[in-house]
Amino acid sequence: MKIILGIAGEIGSGKGTIAKHIKEKYKSSSHRFSTALRDVAQRMHLEESRENLQKISTLFRENFNDDILSMTVCHDVDEDTRQIVVIDGVRRMADIKYLKNLSGFKLVYVEANLDLRYNRITKRRENSDDMHKTYEEFLADNKREAEVQIKDLKNYADFVINNEGTFLELYHQVDKIIKELGGE
Predict the structure, then answer these.
(1) Cβ–Cβ < 8 Å for 106, 5
(2) Tens of pLDDT along 23-50?
(3) Which of 30, 114, 132, 167 is an S-S bond match for 86, by CB 3.0 to 4.6 Å?
(4) Which of 98, 107, 106, 57 is nearest to 78 (CA)?
(5) Taken in order 144, 157, 130, 16, is the CA torsion positive or negative?
């Protein structure tokens, strides 16, 4: 049976680190909600800042429907032939509308404290504006429309991971989940 893990968590909580670990250790595939948004930003020669990606997301959802990104990711995951599939960046209830109907889908919520998350994003530089982000800007990012529903997803999660420790502690929690679900 296919294992599909949707990873939810606030900015800098460790979603990408979890996805990378699973991809490397279990030879899984990984899909991100932001991939389509980044594709559009690149095609339009827009800076891949958090603000621009959120604007593109809002445009899609306002002009099509709230679950347009989940529908896209769901199709990609459904066509994926890997035994273990990771979906990085679940943010809204609408994001799991289609995904929860996929056989083997489980929602994993990852949490970490605010200061730790801020330090992570300024070091990782995933978005063009992360490196120079002030703490106040980070707090404002956490209040943006795309981020406010994330905390509520914890109530719907099949698993909750605390990512305030070491990489080894994080990986142990992830490996335990995969083993529980019948993965190698």
Answers:
(1) yes
(2) 999 999 999 988 889 999 999 999 988 7
(3) 30
(4) 98
(5) negative
